[in-house]
Write a structure and sequence with these properties.
The complex is a heterodimer of chains A (521) and B (538).
Chain A (H helix, E strand, L loop, with lengths): L5 E5 L3 H12 L3 E5 L11 E5 L2 E4 L10 H6 L9 E3 L4 E3 L7 E4 L2 E4 L4 H25 L11 H15 L3 H10 L4 H8 L3 H12 L11 H9 L2 E2 L2 E2 L4 E2 L3 H14 L3 E3 L4 E7 L2 E7 L4 E3 L2 E4 L3 H9 L6 H8 L7 E8 L16 E4 L3 H12 L8 E5 L14 E8 L9 H19 L3 H4 E7 L1 H8 L35 E3 L13 H11 L5
Parallel strand pairs in A: 1-2, 1-16, 2-12, 6-18, 16-22
Antiparallel strand pairs in A: 3-4, 5-11, 6-7, 7-8, 9-10, 13-14, 14-15, 17-20, 17-21, 18-19, 19-20
Chain B lengths: L2 E7 L3 H12 L4 E4 L12 E4 L2 E3 L11 H6 L9 E4 L2 E4 L5 E4 L3 H11 L1 H21 L15 H16 L2 H12 L2 H6 L5 H8 L15 H9 L2 E2 L2 E2 L2 E4 L4 H13 L3 E3 L4 E7 L2 E7 L4 E9 L3 H7 L8 H9 L6 E8 L18 E4 L3 H12 L8 E5 L14 E8 L12 H18 L3 H4 E7 L1 H8 L35 E3 L13 H13 L14
Parallel strand pairs in B: 1-2, 1-14, 2-11, 6-16, 14-20
Antiparallel strand pairs in B: 3-4, 5-10, 6-7, 8-9, 12-13, 13-14, 15-18, 15-19, 17-18
Helix pairs in contact in B: 1-10, 1-17, 3-4
Classes of the chains: A alpha+beta (521), B alpha/beta (538).
Chain lengths: 521, 538
């Protein structure tokens, strides 16, 4: 027998760190094992060219749970937002851009009816997103078993829905399962507005705006309250790495042991329970409880091994859809770039190339067949405007999410990377004509690169597609959706669990609650 | 002018069913039909001498057996003849056959992929389970989840109880089934692309979604939940064409004293002080009744036949936002003889079933991309049948009638209305595709009727030519069909009801919407119920 107080956390991503800190607060002796040389997992700020740093994956903060921020005192551990309430500039090729600021929209020849409609749209969607957000801070109920706390959870959900009022509840039940394209058609005329809003629904997913589920993913994205504002976007000083640095500091302050450069080779199993882990170097650490921040496929197939699991469960894990579609473009720039028609004070906002929703849909069509988009959609930020520490004096970094770049590219990414990089830069040049001359270094991280660098299967940021059939009590799979798994002592705490991806921390916190309550399935 | 108890607008199969049940309950009912024949899209027509075309709907399985029995449709001449088998022909000369004999079907699957043959057992069981789950709800009125009325609460509780009885695993499977794409769902069972393409087809028939669109698993279910003679999932022909169904319903209705007026297109539903009083016809005649039931789709009913001032603005908005979306076309072809399909070999019985030309999920999805881009599929998915191999009454001896259902065909071509040239080009696309697999096919053609959404809308009245009167997506199913708050067959003004496929449980020649609406009407009138309720599983 080992010390039952000890908990090992595999992976020092944001959820692993959150989980570790709560467990330490709950009296556990916690060790976090991170494969890379620094904590943070995919939420890191790293140098991609001498003197130029950038958030390697997600580059904006919108979903971080305010409760966690308070409970773990992240501010006193160094978390600072360099810019809150980022506006969205929907770029038009002719320079007549549209600016979206919460429920206000201007420019781009937008009509009065669209202006009014956006207020109505945001009011409804914010309410629905809030409802969804309320589900996020607790473990999903198991349905079909008569467990009082699960019944309570389900009843509470029903009540929350009722509290929306009749019309809104009806509207919620109508739209929750469908696609954002249709909804936007009901509200708006402006192609630029529809393009930008539809892109929000498909960021990081294998969905086009016309794919059902994209209302759900839109609401997911709006479910956060960064800076106290529903569905807002913020930029953390120091990039995403600063968020995980604050989380690591919080963990350390509670006595968590943080070990970097300690890749776990396997989780040790004795019969149906875990007994510890073995590092790639051969070192073994014993513990009764192991919490994995790795994605479910990595956890169960690489670290546990299919032979330790029953066949039905293995099949479920195999079927999790987790093929990434988002690439990340990083540019080191000699000077501040000029986007046609974008005012200097707008340049620090979020710039979107998604001129209409049909454009985004066509970009997605390629991904269905394993091709990259010939006209990709982009979410662009220039973080060095808010944060001088990212680039040498007067120089800048541009960070963009590029869709779609399917993980399983026909012909492979080794052959495809350069061609796609050119496609993306060409697209960028249509809006920022001089940009190619300003570039001193280009990095394009494809899903294949993200998989390799951050050990996320399929390079999928969310550790599994966000979709209704992979959400709530079905995330990652039924039987492991309450953070406990079929193996006694093994828990999951990553984005592969409820409520999913984005730098939120809910999964880590919920998992800690499950561990501390002695969680069995 | 004579006053009726109820007027039913549209003599489609749902309108006739609804009228028949009301007449059976003793109501004086008038059915008004715009065309000179009854049936709507459930119709047989002689458009070429001596050939009978089922020129819209073409096969039968969903028709509820409770309705078949209680309206005594057999007595009124309806005979449903099951047919067996189907085949999917691949471009490379191979094919995948599906036979009535399970062992033969299994060997055929094994020929393509032994593991898939095993998986098909799991697949069949799972689909069948979903069918059994949904069937009891077809003949029930959906509860309103936002209502606090005792009836709704009881129904919701009952629904919840039924659901929980399934047990944890089946519940999760069910939720996933309703939200996944058919392509993803099939990926969980099968490896062979041909096998997947074969099973994926029913997931897109009549719907403006691709096989990779989440939500298409349900559409597959919609096509699998029927039966012929108690054999679930089986399909059959109505002897003499689909019109036989509508004719039998009409005969039953008239036998109970009902009156049908053809060539009587309705121009307006008359509303006075917040309740309906009757209808005005296109020819100026007016007919009066306290009840008006519309078998037409919601856009036609509320945006064309009703005055906007009689409706709440929020209701009009719901009608405008209702998604109808035409996505199908049809060719009806008179043939001088039986076409040959060399890749099937000689005398292959599979040509008596559904025939498809498709060999990969990607090919199916690309057909949908064309629709999204505003044109008919250049390599369409067809569901092709030669009914005369099973029912020789539809063509002269030795000759044949071929029905070719085509997916996808957009309601507009690149945003503009269809022209005759477009229609002919579309027809040619389909004929060329068939000819690729049947070298003697073109020489046998005596007559072709090509139907695009334009023809379907003009002749049958279905907006955008959608065969289900509205998309079968989660926002428009069950208590959301046609609109949230209006799923219990009652319209927005007093005395007005809806009974078409746009109401629960949706399209296909099922007749359940018509029957369910009749039950609600009789309940409002406090009349004894004549409509079978609940589930009679054999």
């Amino acid at each position: 027998m080992t010390d039952s107080k000890r908990v090992i956390i595999v992976g020092g991503g944001h959820n692993g760190l959150v989980c570790a800190t709560y467990l330490a607060k709950g009296g556990k002796e916690v060790i976090v094992l991170e494969a890379a040389n620094e904590m943070g997992g995919a939420a890191v700020t790293r140098e991609f060219s001498p003197g130029f740093k950038v958030s390697a994956c997600a580059h904006l903060l919108n979903l971080l749970d305010p409760t966690i921020e308070t409970e773990l005192a992240l501010k006193s551990h160094g978390l600072r937002l360099a810019k809150t309430n980022l506006k969205t500039i929907a770029l038009a090729e002719d320079g007549n851009h549209l600016q979206i600021d919460g429920n206000r929209v201007s420019g781009g020849g937008v009509s009065d009816s669209d202006t009014t409609a956006l207020v109505k749209y945001r009011r409804r969607m914010d309410r629905f997103a809030k409802l969804l957000g309320r589900l996020y801070s607790r473990k999903p109920p198991r349905i079909g078993v008569s467990n009082p706390s699960d019944l309570f959870g389900a009843a509470k959900l029903a009540l929350d829905m009722r509290l929306l009022g009749r019309e809104d509840m009806r509207e919620f039940l109508r739209i929750a399962g469908i696609n954002i394209y249709d909804i936007l058609e009901e509200y708006f005329d402006s192609p630029l507005l529809k393009g930008a809003l539809s892109f929000d629904g498909v960021l990081g997913t294998h969905l086009g705006p016309r794919s059902n589920n994209s209302v759900f993913t839109t609401l997911h994205r709006m479910s956060g309250r960064i800076g106290g504002k529903q569905g807002a976007l913020a930029y953390p000083a120091g990039g995403m790495g600063a968020v995980t640095a604050a989380l690591a500091a919080a963990a350390a302050s509670k006595g968590v042991t943080l070990r970097t450069a300690s890749p776990v080779a396997r989780i040790l199993v004795d019969g149906d329970r875990v007994t510890g882990v073995e590092l790639e170097g051969g070192e073994q650490i014993s513990a009764d409880t192991v919490v994995s921040n790795a994605d479910p496929r990595t956890t169960f197939f690489k670290l546990i091994g299919a032979r330790n699991l029953d066949a039905g469960f293995v099949r479920k894990i195999q079927h999790i859809r987790m093929r990434g579609n988002a690439a990340k473009l990083h540019l080191a720039l000699k000077t501040l770039p000029t986007f046609t028609g974008v005012e200097p004070d707008q340049l620090g906002e979020r710039l979107v190339i998604a001129p209409d929703s049909a454009y985004v849909e066509r970009a997605f069509d390629h991904a269905k067949y394993g091709e990259y988009s010939s006209s990709p959609a982009l979410e662009i930020t220039i973080p060095s405007i808010h944060d001088a520490s990212l680039a040498p004096d007067g120089q800048h970094v541009l960070s963009a999410i590029v869709q779609y770049a399917p993980y399983e590219l026909k012909g492979g990414w080794e052959a495809g990377r350069e061609a796609f990089t050119n496609v993306v830069l060409d697209q960028l040049s249509r809006y920022a004509p001089d940009i190619r001359q300003q570039i001193t270094h280009t990095e394009l991280l494809t899903p294949a690169d993200i998989e390799r660098e951050f050990r996320i299967t399929g390079g999928h940021w969310h550790h599994g597609e966000l979709a209704l059939d992979q959400a709530l009590m079905m995330r990652p799979v039924p039987g492991a959706a309450q953070y406990a798994t079929p193996l006694s002592g093994l828990f999951l705490c990553g984005a592969g669990c409820h409520p999913g991806g984005g730098v939120m921390g809910h999964a880590g916190r919920n998992a800690a609650t499950a561990v501390l309550s002695g969680g069995s399935r | 002018m004579k006053k009726y108890d109820a007027i039913v607008i549209g003599a489609g199969h749902n309108g006739l069913t609804n009228a028949a049940y009301l007449a059976k309950a003793g109501l004086k009912v008038l059915v008004l039909e715009r065309n000179s024949y009854v049936g709507g899209a459930t119709v047989s027509r002689e458009l070429y001498k001596d050939w009978i075309y089922s020129n819209c709907s073409y096969v039968c399985s969903l028709l509820r057996p409770e309705i078949y029995r209680t309206l005594n449709l057999a007595k009124y001449g309806l005979q449903v003849v099951p047919y067996g088998g189907s085949v999917t022909m691949a471009e490379n000369g191979d094919f995948l056959g599906s036979y009535i004999d399970h062992d033969v079907s299994r060997r055929e699957l094994e020929r393509h992929n032994a593991r898939d043959a095993d998986a098909s057992l799991r697949f069949d069981t799972d689909i069948m389970r979903q069918c059994r789950l949904i069937r009891p709800f077809l003949m029930r009125t959906p509860p309103d989840p936002t209502s606090f009325k005792p009836w709704d609460l009881m129904q919701l509780l009952d629904f919840g109880r039924e659901f929980l009885k399934l047990g944890e695993d089946v519940i999760y499977d069910t939720v996933r089934f309703y939200t996944m794409s058919i392509a993803e769902y099939l990926d969980e069972y099968f490896e062979s692309d041909l096998i997947k393409a074969n099973f994926a087809g029913p997931g897109i028939i009549g719907t403006a979604l691709g096989v990779m669109s989440p939500g298409t698993s349900y559409v597959l279910l919609h096509h699998a939940m029927g039966d012929v003679d108690g054999s679930m999932g089986a399909w059959g022909f109505a002897r003499g064409g689909m019109g036989a169904i509508a004719n039998a319903m009409a005969a039953c209705f008239q036998d109970h004293g009902g009156e049908i007026m053809t060539d009587a297109g309705v121009d307006q539903i008359i509303v006075k002080s917040g309740r309906v009083t009757g209808v005005a016809l296109e020819n100026g005649d007016e007919h009066y009744a306290d009840l008006v039931v519309s078998n037409l789709d919601p856009k036609r009913t509320f945006l064309k036949l009703m005055d906007e001032k009689d409706l709440e603005p929020s209701f009009v908005e719901k009608a405008r936002n209702f998604k109808i979306r035409g996505s199908s076309g049809k060719l009806n072809i008179a043939l001088d003889g039986l076409p040959e399909f060399p890749q099937l070999g000689k005398d292959n019985p599979l040509i008596a079933g559904d025939m498809h030309f498709m060999d990969s999920v990607e090919r199916l999805e690309r057909a949908y991309d064309d629709w999204k881009n505003g044109t008919w599929s250049k390599d369409p998915y067809v569901d092709m049948l030669i009914p005369t191999l099973t029912d020789p009454t539809m063509a002269p001896p030795g000759k044949h009638y071929m029905s070719v259902f085509v997916q996808y065909v957009p309601p507009k071509v690149h945003g503009r209305d269809w022209t005759d040239e477009d229609r002919d080009a579309f027809g040619q696309t389909v004929i060329d595709q068939i000819a690729n697999y049947s070298p003697n096919f073109k020489d046998l053609i005596l007559h072709t009727e090509v139907r695009t959404p334009r023809e379907i809308e003009d002749e049958v009245g279905l907006t955008e030519g959608n065969i289900f009167q509205g998309e079968l997506t989660m926002d428009q199913l069950f208590f959301n069909r046609p609109f949230p708050g209006f799923a219990q067959y009652r319209g927005p003004v007093k005395g007005m009801y809806m009974c078409g496929s746009a109401t629960h449980p949706g399209g296909g020649v099922m007749a359940a919407p018509g029957a369910n609406a009749a039950r609600e009407i009789l309940r409002d009138l406090r009349r004894p119920n004549t409509v079978p309720e609940g589930w009679t599983d054999d």
